[in-house]
TrEMBL record:
The keyword ATP-binding does not apply. This is Serine/threonine-protein phosphatase. InterPro entries: Bact_Sigma-Reg, PPM-type-like_dom_sf, PPM-type_phosphatase-like_dom. The keyword Cell membrane does not apply. One of its GO terms (molecular function) is phosphatase activity. Keywords: Hydrolase. It comes from Streptomyces phaeolivaceus. Residues 168-383 form the PPM-type phosphatase domain.
Length: 394
């Protein structure tokens, strides 16, 4: 049995709360690594926090700076070379495009790192998959991600999310919520199969627990309809009935529903509320004109229809809640579509996973305060297309 297979087996057999310990032990025994620490990205995507809970655990590291941040952002190993002697390597941990964190390991020499870096990066991928499974049975890693305590509403919202990024050959997705530790109503959800990607972008109504409860009802009603195989317009209709049955029209939910055919780029959209859609194509940003329909739950048995849009390989769609485009400066000047278009254009070279955070940082500068008063949500979808769907080159 080679050492990689033995290491993979050790991770798979480790108790959920001892997963990182098993990773540390096997790297020390088989790759002569020491000072192994696993850092997880916090909820606000600003720091990488150590999973070690002992008193002398290392300090958090920045997400957007330093070798650990470069490994996290670029999804490639990064090695600190400091002359002769040991080197410090950081390895990205991603699961199907969702960035989780980075292990930092000290290796005996640069030559040793060059010889085994590919193998260690692959093992870090195994660690990521095992971490996702382990989180069903332990709170160790969920606690490690927290720079501060979440509000109860935020706890509910983060548990509802599918992840913060996802990628396949045809597309890449990224999403982020603010204020990360006190968000209450905004949400996003996605699901993909062989030929379709379905995406919901939700602009929650109300505050605190009530907003979170409303969003939970709406998202789970949409999921229930989606998993029954219903088209996107019927998903909206059934979720509308569920919300109205509970709230009688006193509360409603603004949702943008999208159904993307992964073979053709044909997109069906139901615009049931206030989330906005911007399209970046060939360096130009514009607002996608959609047929506005009633939010879910406003009236009983509302009929919804899907609007057809065709997107092209290379297109980027950015979806934002009203906590983005309506935010105001201390003097009362709203952010607006022009400023939002500039922010989206400024991120054109970033991968989809980094776009939401970059737009929200720009928004923070506009309002003049680091913390948002209202929920702010940004979701980015990059469409690459399928090779067989593209016309032959002439």
């Amino acid at each position: 049995m080679n050492r990689f297979v033995a290491a993979e087996r050790a991770l798979r057999s480790a108790a959920p709360h001892h997963l990182v310990d098993a990773f540390r032990d096997v790297l020390g025994a088989e790759w002569s690594a020491r000072d192994v620490e696993f850092y997880l990205a916090d909820y606000s995507l600003t720091t990488l926090r150590p999973t070690s809970a002992h008193p002398d655990s290392p300090d958090p590291l920045p997400v957007h700076d330093g070798p650990a941040g470069r490994a996290f952002g670029a999804r490639e190993p990064c090695v600190e070379r400091r002359g002769e002697g040991p080197v410090r390597a950081y390895l990205p941990v991603t699961v199907r495009g969702d960035r989780l964190g980075v292990p930092g390991v000290t290796l005996p020499s640069a030559a040793h790192a060059d010889a085994c870096l590919g193998e260690l990066a692959e093992l870090a991928g195994v660690l990521g998959h095992e971490l996702v499974v382990a989180e069903r049975d332990t709170d160790v890693y969920v606690r490690a991600r927290r720079s501060s305590r979440l509000t109860l509403a935020a706890e509910m919202q983060w548990q509802l999310l599918p992840g913060r990024s996802s990628s396949r050959a045809e597309y890449a997705l990224g999403g982020q919520l603010e204020p990360a530790y006190a968000v209450f109503g905004d949400n996003f959800d996605w699901s993909a199969d062989a030929d379709r990607l379905m995406l919901y972008v939700t602009n929650g109504m109300g505050e605190g627990i009530e907003a979170s409860l409303l969003t939970h009802l709406g998202i789970n009603a949409l999921r229930n309809a989606r998993r029954a195989g219903l088209p996107v317009a019927d998903q909206a209709a059934l979720a509308d009935q569920a919300v109205h049955a509970r709230y009688g029209g006193a509360s409603h939910l603004s949702v943008l529903l999208l159904d993307l055919n992964l073979a053709t780029g044909h997109l069906e959209i139901v615009d049931a509320g206030s989330p906005r859609t911007l399209l970046l194509r060939d360096g130009n940003v514009g607002v996608v004109a959609l047929d506005a329909q009633l939010p879910l739950g406003m009236f009983e048995e509302t009929d919804y229809s899907a609007q057809e849009v065709r997107i092209e390989p290379g297109d980027r769609l950015v979806f934002v809640s009203d906590g983005v485009y309506s935010v105001a400066t201390p003097s009362g000047e709203t952010y607006g579509e022009r400023a939002l278009a500039r922010a989206v254009n400024a991120t054109r070279l970033l991968p989809a996973a980094d776009v939401p955070g970059a737009v929200l940082r720009e928004l923070s500068g506009h309002r003049g305060t680091p913390e948002a008063d209202d929920d702010a949500l940004v979701v980015c979808l990059d469409w690459f297309g399928r090779e067989e769907a593209c016309p032959p080159h002439r």
